Amino acid sequence: MGDTPDYALEDTVIDLINHAAPGSDITVSVYHFTRKLPAEALIAAKQNKGVNVRVVLDGSNAGNQVVNLLSPVLGADLTLCQSSGGGSCIGSNINHSKFFLFSALDNGVTNVVVQSSANLTNPMLTDHNNLVIARGDALLYQGYLNYWLDQKADQQNLDYYKTIDGTLPFRAYFYPRAQGDTIVSILDNVSCSAGNKKIRLAMSLFSDSRVEIAQKLVTKKQEGCSVVTLLADRDGSPGAAILSTLNNGNVSTFLVTPTATRSTIHSKYLLIDADYQSGANLVPRKLVFTGSHNYTGNALHDNDEQLIRVDDADVYTAFLNNWQTIRNTVP
Fold it and tell me: How far apart are CA 95 and CA 32, in angstroms?
């Protein structure tokens, strides 16, 4: 909490790197990468086990210590995107990605997708973050790999938006998106008309350009859902229109301001426990939507971003417990 580093997420990624099967593939896309330990693990995997390590980074990483470590070893398998004239690969702003792909581990598990909210940097060790691991889902793995290959090509496409359904209960969403708002559409699928329906949000950045999401949360509150939001109070976020919309709509909203004993939120997740439109039917579901995607205009229209939906009650419970832990830090 606060200023105390938590290495759990980084250690998880390093452990997976260390257990990559000889001759397998590790494929990475990250916004900011400055931590030496995961970089050294990638180098060791390549040099000691012949693992094919491929990394795409936002262009702003040029010249940092990790790039200087990786570049002589990876050569052309290290890409710093700059199609936008900035740092993004497909978008026009930044490559905000935070995912890791493992084709095979030394225990026989294949097609591993790791989607995180955290960069590989020192500040991430003290912020609230999360990651999701999908194992053995070939369709999901291929969807992420196809996106990575498009990033590697470093060609701007602001109308890129794609989704992929896994063989397991996962759906992934890849950005930038030219029209529409994925989160608004997700909330449109929620029915609050009967029973104890819940919507919980923990969000790093929530800007006025996405006020339609706040309006939709108010609508769901009015329809009978319990709606509570935890919003990081930093970097001019949440926007004034977001706060006024939520407060005027009686949506319980808590601002998480970092202190020496309280971490800020860098996670970006939406939890839904409600009837959810599935085809022509409403089905009770416990869903987690998480990834790199903040509720900002840039995240929707301009950045390389990923969102993943997990349809699993145990994962939902784990995220809800994390949400409650953060909630307990706010008076």
Answer: 9
pLDDT < 70: residue spans in the chain: 1, 84
| Fold match flag (8-175 vs 182-327) | yes
What integer pLDDT is reported at residue 1 of this predicted model? 63
Tokens for 169, please give them: 């209960």
8 A C-beta contact, residue 260 and residue 2: yes
CA distances from 123 to 3, 7, 34, 157, 242 (A): 9, 11, 10, 31, 26
Phi, psi of 191 (to 5 degrees): -105, 125
- Give tens-digit pLDDT for 305-318: 999 999 999 999 99
Whether the bond into 331 is cis, omega within 30 of 0: no
Closest CA to 269 of 191, 203, 221: 203
Helix (H/G/I), strand (E/B), else coil: 41: helix
Q: Is the peptide bond before 38 cis (omega within 30 degrees of 0)?
A: no
Q: Looking at the domain 182-327, which fold is it?
A: Endonuclease; Chain A (3.30.870)
- Listed by start position, the domains of the chain span 8-175, 182-327
8-175 belongs to which CATH class? alpha beta
Nearest to 40 by CA among 117, 149, 112, 120: 120
How far is 14 from 40, CA to CA, in rounded Å?
A: 9
Helix (H) or strand (E) holding 183: helix 182-188
Amino acid at 217: L
Write down the pLDDT at residue 235: 87
Would you list the DSSP string of 215-257? HHHHHHHHTT-EEEEEEE-BTTBS-HHHHHHHHHTT-EEEEE-
List the one residue out of 274, 262, 217, 263 whose CA is nearest residue 243. Answer: 217
Distances (CA, A) of 121 to 31, 32, 34, 118, 274: 10, 7, 5, 8, 36
Pairwise CA distance, residues 89 & 314, whole Å: 35
pLDDT tens for residues 288-301?
A: 999 999 999 999 99
